[in-house]
Amino acid sequence: MSRRKRASSKPFFAVAALLFAAIVGLGFFRFSAAQLEFRLNTMERSIQRYTAEEAELRQVLSGLTSPIRILSYCREQLGMTAARQEIVQVPRLLTARAPVPEPQEGWRYSMFAFFGLRMN
Q1: pLDDT (tens digit, 9 = 90+) per residue, 27-56?
Q2: Three-class DSSP category at 51
Q3: Residue 55: which domain range?
């Protein structure tokens, strides 16, 4: 009988274990990516929902603050009526312009003018 050396199975198991670990790692990364994608889609949907709600609320607010809406609310709910408008004419008054005094010369005048006083 011939004695043959058997090939060691250790490298085969090491390579198989590495391949298994790589496959499990790639699966974990794929699962994490899917989870992040789901969270991102959820956030995008909520942003769209809040944007639509904001547009609707802006439209309601503009309807509530419009002058026609305020006038109709005052008439219907509060029983208010618009006052009769009258045109008031104010006569223009003629004003006389006072002559501008001539500036006086000298150091005394400038000293008094500095303190806001007048010299007679």
Answers
A1: 999 999 999 999 999 999 999 999 999 999
A2: helix
A3: 11-81
Longest dimension (CA), the chain: 147
The pair of structure tokens assigned to 44 is 């995008």
The DSSP output letter for 77 is: T
Domain membership of residue 61 (yes or no) is yes
By the 8 A CB rule, do 74 and 80 touch? yes
* CA 80-82-84 angle, 5° bins: 140
CA 14, 25, 41 angle in degrees (round to 5)?
170
What are 86's two structure tokens?
Answer: 């009258």
Tokens 């010369």, residue located: 105
